[in-house]
Amino acid sequence: MHLLAPTNWDKELITPLSQIRADIQIFGVLPTSMMGSGGSGPDIPQMTTKQAEEYVKLAHSAGLTFNYLLNAPCMNNMEWDEDTHQELLKHLEWLSNAGVDSVTVAIPYLLELIKHQFPHLKVEVSTIAHVSSVARAKLFESLGADSIILDSNINRDFKLLKAIRNAVKCELGVLTNSFCLYQCPYEYYHNNTLGHASQSYNPLNGFYMDYCVLHCTLDKLHDTSQIIKSRWIRPEDIHVYEEIGIDFFKIGGRAMPTQWIINAAEAYSSRHYQGNLYDILSVLTPKIRYANPVLANTQINPVGSPPRVYIDNQALEGFIDFFRKQDCPSGCAHCDYCQKIADKVIQLDPQEINEYISLLKDFLDDLISSKIFTSVST
């Protein structure tokens, strides 16, 4: 098994990951850079380039390979500015000298540039690029992609997964533990906000609002079927994807604590997890930012305490079989399968849920009424 495991840059991750019985590649990124990534800078531990170089060497000494993320979906057209373009090339030169084994991108131009000027680097196409069709997979492969992480929205579209596998020769991977809404309407906007927030030249210095996460969380708490529709993959169902020809499995969660990352990697490598599936899903928690973004002292506070969600993983045995024949994109409106499963396997405390929903709604109201720009948190 080939696993991609996240790193939060804690050196205590290296030895446990190297001892897992799987071919492990770790992936990570500095909190901010001129390129940016698919995650927000403030949520990633601060690292210097020198520390990152030492970390890559430590990973190699333990038999692990390293993938560096360059997967912001947009550079705000700064790639066409001469000074910024030269900075981009220097950044790539640094990655090459640091000994990273591969990089992950979402921008087609960046893929071609790297393959032309740094051909020794393997380039992986991010799930943020939304490769969700045979045509798109073939086009990215023609640009030089060595591997592609498929759009997680198609994780349970097995007919399409097979067709893509048969159409391309490059390696294909899937994101295993995403907790995003299925066919999320906020997804493109969210990826862009995170990408810009992690770019060093962004005028707001990493500031962004959790509008997308607020809506995503509210939607799942209001409608528990959305928790099941989310395209996560159980460790026990990895074999279904291997039978299709999927080459590797990516575990999201580079902002998570060290022990969480180890637990998730062990679960997917062993193809078994006993207990609450929610505990190994990459769950984003909304944060409150009550200050004008141009101010230096922006307060960032969690929105209350998230309610406890329990997903009985053992009760999901055989759950994936339904999707082998189901056409979810066209049939979702006339199907109640996910709601029936939710009623069977999800446990929530109604009082906790109602209190949390109230907190989220209050903050969302402040966002859409523009009160956020005049209020200051106490």
Strand segment count: 12
Q: How does the helix and strand content classify structurally? A: alpha/beta
Strand order of the largest sheet: 1-2-3-4-5-6-7-8
Mean pLDDT: 92
* Rg computed from alpha carbons, rounded to a whole number of angstroms: 20 Å
Number of alpha- plus pi-helical segments: 14
The biggest beta sheet is recorded as: 8 strands, parallel, barrel
Q: Separation of termini?
A: 50 Å
Q: Stretches where pLDDT falls below 50 for ≥5 residues?
A: 293-298
Q: In percent terms, what proportion of residues is strand?
A: 5-15%
Brief rundown of the structure:
With 378 residues, this protein is of the alpha/beta class.
Please outline the helices and strands:
Elements: E1 2-6, H1 14-18, E2 23-28, H2 49-61, E3 65-70, H3 82-98, E4 102-105, H4 108-117, E5 122-125, H5 134-142, E6 147-149, H6 158-167, E7 171-175, H7 187-197, H8 211-222, H9 225-229, H10 238-244, E8 248-250, H11 258-270, E9 287-289, E10 300-302, E11 309-311, H12 328-331, H13 337-345, E12 346-348, H14 350-368
Parallel strand pairs: 1-2, 1-8, 2-3, 3-4, 4-5, 5-6, 6-7, 7-8
Antiparallel strand pairs: 9-10, 11-12
Helix pairs in contact: 5-6, 8-14
What characteristics describe this protein?
eight-stranded parallel barrel; about 375 residues; globular; two-stranded antiparallel ribbon; alpha/beta
Describe this structure in words.
The protein is of the alpha/beta class. 38% of the residues lie in helices and 13% in strands. An eight-stranded parallel beta barrel has the order 1-2-3-4-5-6-7-8, surrounded by four helices. Residues 293-298 have low confidence and may be disordered.
